[in-house]
Amino acid sequence: MTVLFLLLIAGIYDETPITRNLDSNFQPGTYAEYRASQPEFTELRVTAVSGDSRGTELLVIMEENMSDSLDAGIVDQWLSDIAGEGNSVAAVEITYADPVEIRTWLQGLYAEGLKGVVFVGDIPAPWSCTVDASKADETFPSDYFYMDLDGVWEDSWIGYPTSGVPGQDSIYDGWSGDLFPEIYASRILTSVILLGNEYDLIESYLTRLHEWRQTGDPEPHALCYVDDDWSSFGGTYRSAMLNLYDDVELVNEVSATNGTDYRQNRLQAGYTWISPFVHSGATMHQWSPGPSTTSGHIWTDQPPSRFYNLFACANCRFTTNWCMGCAYVFGTDSGLAAVGSTKSGAMLQFVPFYAALGDGSSFGEAYSAWWSYIISGGFTPSEQYWHLGMIILGDPTIMPAMHMLGIGGDEPASVPVVYFSANPASGAVTVYAQGEFTIHDMTGRVVARGQNSQSFSGLETGIYLVSTEGLSVSEKLCVIR
To answer: Model-level pTM?
Structure first.
């Protein structure tokens, strides 16, 4: 079974063209340039802003002194909204400390119940490098360092490992041990949007988060926009997105996808979710045959969409000014969250992510479930190259399916629902249902029963059917180890 799994995974990574920057002369920012633009590291000091960080499930981590520049009422409303969805939450400010010191601090909080963090402002970024014989070697910011709290992140070489120079340069080049994610992490970062005021943009973002939590999207629909190199995969990509929304429009004809159509006909069409599949750089999409869509276009055109899965090379490279992912989420009047990469590559194996979202998981929980799926077969060099730059931009507690499932808001669900804390789930999983429910394995055998909200940690790897009393609603649950 393990050999078959690895063969299937290898096929996906070998057959799928990697999204990359098509400009052969382009040079992404280096770690040395990033550090030169940032303050010197100082000893980690943590200052409470709201609540107690010890024992909290969600921790908002702001850059030092940021809370003095933000409207306290808007921040308090945000924290209250998160708490109202059943999460214990606290907020702190931290000094500009070495990522290793920050990770060590998070390890202690995880032992006390931490499930996720959101970094607000310029919080130090860990960096990694990957090599591939058939692709370009790359260095890039890698926030998965803050999610995997007990894996071994190695800095064994100066430059790329292929250079053969042993030593340390503060860039991670090897990964071993238990690499599953312990927590989820995301960023709210507006300083790279140079035409806007950093604090005004954060306040506007938090305000629309609150408004969305009240109203949602009455008729959500999504766009799966697949440029030429991936056109043959379009049906598979759309099928994964159908796990979240019933209405997903696929555009993948080679003659149909281009920059003019995307900008004039798609960005303004009011899609709730947009997934562009396109060669890109940190600040642009490079369509075939063109023209490019830039971060400046996003700033001026103000697309009304909420969510983005950016299968677009380096589109979430938050260390670059006018990072396009930041423009989509924080530079518009509607953006709420995006997932994408800080380097070549993007998300693959989409089903675990969209299935978890469709079952009512938050953005962070679904992202963590996807990472657990990726790691479950062993972290191969191809997976490292494709995925180590992945990141969430936005509030990780937001649930795209919240209003469809009747979670939160003023209106109760019209029918009983079943959803999960993660799906696929690795280890423990919480089942949420209205009333009593039963968990069956695929032979029909009852393996567990529960009521309303209950956690289970002993389910073995496999597919289960979770049904409410009377079998009025049934949902599949995938458990992986």
So the answer is: 0.85
